[in-house]
Design goal:
Elements lengths: L10 E6 L11 E6 L4 H13 L4 E3 L6 E3 L4 E6 L9 E4 L2 E5 L4 H10 L2 E2 L11 H6 L3 E2 L2 E2 L4 E7 L5 E5 H4 L12 E8 L1 E2 L2 H18 L19 H7 L6 E2 L2 E3 L7 E3 L5 H19 L8 E3 L10
Parallel strand pairs: 2-5, 3-5, 4-18
Antiparallel strand pairs: 1-2, 6-7, 7-13, 8-14, 9-10, 11-12, 11-13, 15-16, 16-17
Helix pairs in contact: 2-5
């Protein structure tokens, strides 16, 4: 009997997953699983682990590029009500990993809770924002994080405090774990001030970044003491094209997908940009976007 039978009503086969990302490029996932709750997720992960099935989580898809060949494993979507819950206790909020960060940040800013104004214009689920410690010049999501509940690849769940989370610049220690909820602490402030700050940071993003184009946000992490976009601009690469992909003329750390673009075009262009910056400045740009490629394993065997 196929072990997937117990998840039959929550599993889809051969699902086009690239169109679910902000790039809207790339192929299909072998399977997509939508767990009902944490227990359902843990049960699936135990089975996947025992069958050596690779697993990834897709949130808002703003920091993901799916290869044209797709992903030959299981993709988890935490979009049921259990993963979208918000529980408030004073200035402390417990957020499901599937909560959409921007609307939540706007809501609490409107209500006079300070700490997430800098998340304006950063498209992410709460779980994804924690995993990569999303943020920008105004601050990072991790600045307000108290703890998180994480389920490991074997299905075991535990609470992680700030030290264990290992939050740094666009990184965390979560690794192969899956965030199911996050506890944050905000501060009370005047609603007029918090909303003004939110609107200010949102306007700054819209002026500086090509948010209306198909992209995945910043493609590269900023090297120590440098700005990746400035390095790419100084190397004369704004507007550089490869196939249907091009370096944004508005913000050089964005690669945008035009008509006819493929995921391979984006990958080839980002590698070209890395090479040109290396030649010009001796600096290796580290890719910030998560690129999903086939892992060479048979997905979800019976």
């Amino acid at each position: 009997m196929n072990w997937l039978s117990e998840f039959a009503d929550r599993v889809q086969c051969g699902v086009p997953i690239g169109p679910e990302t902000w790039f809207r490029l790339g192929g299909s996932a072998a399977y997509v699983f939508r767990p009902r709750d944490e227990d359902d997720l843990a049960s699936f992960l135990r089975q996947a682990h025992s069958h050596a099935v690779p697993v990834k989580v897709l949130g808002r898809g703003a920091n993901v590029l799916v290869s044209d060949e797709g992903y030959d494993g299981a993709v988890i979507r935490l979009d049921s009500g259990a993963f979208r819950a918000v529980v408030q206790d004073g200035t402390r909020f417990v957020l499901g990993a599937g909560v959409d960060l921007i609307p939540f940040a706007r809501r609490v800013s409107t209500e006079g809770y300070s700490g997430l104004e800098g998340m304006a214009g950063i498209p992410a689920s709460v779980g994804g924002a924690l995993r990569m410690n999303a943020g920008g010049a105004p601050g990072d999501f991790g600045d307000v994080v108290v703890s998180a509940r994480v389920v490991d690849p074997t299905g075991a769940a535990s609470e992680w405090d700030r030290d264990r989370l290992g939050l740094g610049y666009r990184t965390s220690a979560i690794g192969d774990g899956i965030v199911v909820r996050v506890t944050i602490e905000l501060k009370r402030d005047d609603p007029g001030r918090t909303m003004a700050r939110f609107n200010k940071f949102d306007a700054m993003k819209r002026r500086a970044q090509p948010l209306g184009d198909k992209s995945a946000g910043c493609m590269f992490k900023n090297p120590p003491g440098e700005a990746a976009g400035a390095l790419i601009d100084r190397a004369g690469l704004k507007g550089l094209e490869y196939g249907g992909a091009s370096v944004s003329t508005k913000h050089a750390n964005f690669i945008v997908a035009d008509d006819g673009a493929t995921a391979s075009h984006v990958i080839q262009l980002l590698e070209l940009v890395q090479g040109r910056v290396r030649e010009a400045f001796g600096i290796e740009l580290e890719v910030e976007v998560d690129i999903w490629r086939p892992v060479g394993k048979e997905a979800l065997p019976a």
